[in-house]
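Interim report to the steering committee. The following record documents the input for Small ribosomal subunit protein mS23 (289 residues).
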Amino acid sequence: MGRYNLAPQRVNQKATQLLSSKRLPNPPPWYHISSTVPPSSRLDRPPLQRSQIPGHKPPGGKKKSKLFKPLQLKYEEDRLRWEYFNDHPWELARPRVVLENDGRDAERWDWSVPLDHALNRPRAGEVNALGRRTDAEWDHVRRTQAGRPINGEAVVQRQSYLMSHGGLTTALAYDTARKEFYRYRHYLETSTRVAREEALAVGAFFGPGPVEIGMHLENQAYEGWKAWAEKEVAAMKQMAGAAYTGTENQEAAISSPEVPEQEDLQEVSESVPASRQGQEAQGGAAVHP
C-alpha cells in the first residue's frame, strides 16, 4: 500500500534477465525498441503551463501549425442554398426521399429543363421552326427527367445553372427558378385538393391525419396524467390526516380534572420506606413454623 509499481518501467531489464538465463528462446518483438526508446523515469506528468490572460502568448512560443487542421469545405451552391432556405424555412420540414439507385442519380438530371416543364405540354402534332414535333421532344424529356425531384435543392441547382450557362445575375436567376418552382408546387397542391374533394363527393372515407392522431395521443396522455395526479393528491391528503399532530392529547389533558399535589403525597406518604410506619408488605412467601 502506498508504494510505486515500477514493474512497467523495468520490463526491458526483466526481459534481458530472462534472455540471459535462456528462459526466453527469442527476444520479443518490442525488445529492441524498448531498449532504444526506454520508458520515462518520471511517474507524473507536469501540467501544461498556459497563460490565464486571453490572447496572451508566452514568451518564446510560436504560432500553432495549421498543417493538420482540416480545411473548411465551401461550395458554390452554399450561398445560394442559404439564401433560399432562409427565405423558405418550412421547406426543410418537408420529408425527402434520399434513396438512390447507384448514388449517381444527380448526374443524370438536366437542369436546363425548367422546373415546371411537366406543365408545359405542347399540342399534339405541333411542329417548331426546325420542323420537329414539339410533343415528341416533350415526351422524350419527360421519360428521362421524370424522376428528378422538384424541391428546394432543385431550385438551387436550377439557379446555379442559369447563372453559369444562362448568363443571368444572381437575383434574376433566383427569381426565375423560384417562380418555376412556385408554379409547379401550386399545381400539385391544387390537384391534390381537387382529388380529395372529388373522392369525398363520391363517398370516400379518409382516416384521421397525422395532426388528428397526434392530438388523440396527447389527450390520452393528459387524461392518464390527470388520473394519476388525482390519486397522488388523495394519497397525500390521507397521509396528512393520519399524521400525528398532538391536538388529541392536548385536548384530553385540558378536559381531565387536575389532582392536587397534596392528595398525591398523602396517598404515598404512608408507604414510603425509611419512615416510622415503614413500607407496607406487598406480598411474599408464607412464614414457616
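The mean pLDDT is 82. The committee is asked to note this result when reviewing the revised timeline.
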